Amino acid sequence: MQTWDMDLEELKEEETNLPGTKLKTELLTVNMGPQHPATHGVLRVEIKTDSEIVAQAIPHIGYLHRCMEKHCEAIDYRGVIPFVDRLDYLAAMSQELTYSMAVEKMLGTEVPRRALVIRTIVSELQRIASHLMAFGTYALDLGAFSPFLYAFDEREKILTFFEEISGARLLYNYFWIGGVWNDITDRQLGYIDNFLNGFEKELVKYDKLVSSNRIFQERTMGVGTLSLADAHSFGATGPVLRGSGQAWDLRKVDPYLIYDELDFDIPIGEGQRGSELGDCYNRYIVRMLEMVESVKMIRQSMKLLEPGPVIGKVSKVIKVPKGETYTRTECPRGELGIHLVSMGDKTPYRLKVKSPCFTHTSILPHIAPGQMIADFVASIGSIDIVLGEVDR
Amino acid sequence: MYSELITSINSAVTNANATLVTPGEGEIGDSSVLINPESVLEVMKFLKPLYNALQVISGVDYTEYIEVCYFLAHFDPAAPKDVMIKTRLKDRVAPKLDSICSVYLAANWQERECYDMFGVSFNNHPDHRRILCPDDWEGWPLRKDYKVQEVYRGMKVNPENKMNRDDQLFEDNKQKGNEADLIAWALSKGL
Lengths: 392, 191
Prior knowledge:
Chain A is mainly α and 392 residues long. Chain A has 16 helices and 8 strands.
């Protein structure tokens, strides 16, 4: 607000307020965040505004920096799992999966078949839970309150299941190196089956309530458009890249777990319902369609579940051989990569997390100029960032 | 695996000096391509048509040199490929590299993070600031010889009364084998 005071002094001197003369204007700097409900955490964006239009947006991150990468250099390989949980706290299972896959790749551990299937089921449920959160809060950002309640109702059912298998609601420590911590029972499978049956009907409701809502469409269509070339250059992945129209999904391109045995499609943005390719609506609709695919995948994986052990043979003290690896998986928010360097010790020598949210936040200054402030809020919501992962 | 790529890099960029790095005896993991630090920008310009996305820039401090790794990927379902390009910086006082922001837009924030954590400066970077730490923070946190500064803006960093020493105390007592002490300590903590 200091620029305004300066302006006033100048106005008095020059008497530009006289009738017939043009008012002098200047860009106004407004801080959005770090405590702002629409920034999904502690993101601060320094916005230079020309009345209601954003002229420049500079994100300032690091408010949630917890030195996770430095900490991991001092704790053993099993101890890192609770740390990676806290990166993207809305999709903790997916983070654990990537980390344990990286360590298993280095150790050469064979993960039992049942553990692979359980991992697939749980990761896909986590994807639904994460997308529900994105859907609910996105509608909330745009002024619709009830979708948030519907989404949380369904998400709660998934969290109840996770609580039952792991003992925690958000930060699970469920995927261990070599498999999963606990087996899931037939009763719990029945619970998932029940949930999926109800959830499919809910998806139709969301579609009627939000996706085909005229106001919602007006707020998101043609807003925050990201071209495919820019998406590539920024290294965008996940729903942001698919919203720009490319069918790139690691589950299909470089299958891990049991994804190569499952039959599913990759939803992409195609300018659905008259939207512009790569805009907020496309990114949103990709997430909604992905939930339908996840339901399909969980149903198929449940049929593949056979009795057996759920954790492979891993030595009591894990010592990873010397070397390095870069492992990536498709997380709900995009590709998560783990660069693990080992010197043959009990602790990682270096653990670098390539966070999709970090990459996507760097797109904001590119799409912001020329938007209304309210549209900028829609843009932040559509890339679906979690600040725990941005700052690490 | 990358032999064709290495030959084409060497023929396109003079003094790129690209060599293959493979896991040695008793080692495991991915192979990568090592290039000369001076030729980073030219090599990236050459690789841009082959790999359309820069995923991440990761630094590793090996104490005798700082290694900067560029993970490139080609986002095309028909022909997916990826490669790790590495370069080694011997100078620990003021390591310098050419910025590749003009080639990949993603490099902007990734290079800022590398600067923030390892102190690697990037020539011609459009916005050369720290990103995760405060702008006036001292030192490069992810280097192996990093010591946390004692005072930041008149505030003591890591004050004694806020450090959690419980784990350390427990381990110390356990190693001594002093069971009575351990029980007394646990009781004092209300465990």
